[in-house]
Amino acid sequence: MISRAEALARARRWAAQDRPGAEPEVGLHEFDDGYVAWRVEPVPPDPQVPVATGQPRVVIDRQTGELSVWPSLPAPVIAARYRAEHDARQAAVGRFAPEVRHVLQQAGWFPGRDVSASVDRWLASFADELAGLSVFPAARSAMVEFGGLTVPQFGLHGEPGGGFTSYLHPTGGGVVTDAARVFAEEYDDPVFPIGNHADGPSELVMDAQGRVFLLHWAEEFFVAAGIDAALTALIRGDDLVAASERTW
Description:
It is a single chain. By secondary structure, the protein is an alpha+beta fold. The chain has 2 domains: 4-93, no CATH class; 98-245, no CATH class. The strands form 2 sheets. A 7-stranded antiparallel beta sheet has the order 5-6-7-8-9-10-11. Strands 1-2-3-4 form a 4-stranded antiparallel beta sheet, sandwiched between helices. Helix content is 33%, strand content 20%. It is elongated and about 75 Å long. The two termini are 47 Å apart. It has 7 helices and 11 strands. 29% of the residues are buried.
């Protein structure tokens, strides 16, 4: 637990970086999760000289003492944003196992990620290819949160990147729908493409219930009953069950 005095000392050390001379004055705003600090610039003796503005702020986490740099915004605004991000991070801790969360974060995912605009542009760009396929709410939600990510897979030695990579739509390439249409007809379960997988290569699709399947040229596989579990299985390289076994 970081006290106000400790936070002030850390803020002064931060403010003094690359600033030789007297110890700088800092302002400090305390809130539930920590402290917002900023360098207080001296008023120039010449009134014609403008006071420096746009100086960055720093947040000192109350629990860990970790410093994070923020733009020049009012301290209460920064505190509110930091609190929201902190709550989201805490919620994510129980959502994915640590090694899976690490891979996703390295790929660019973070709690609350939203690429709705990119998804909408992608859907419009491939409207002809996707004609007749329903964009189920679960599929759109998955793409909005994870779309555009390139997700590596653990290899034989447990290190990410040694297995087959997954690419979540919207991707830079096109979209293949033939396998999705065949799957829907064969299993009487309409699906929508949500990504590609390097093994095969193959397609990742999702049905209206949020179940994820991997459509490989050799076999269709059931991955998991939801996007979180599916990403976990793909990242870990779990053995998949053939969709024909109907365990889903």
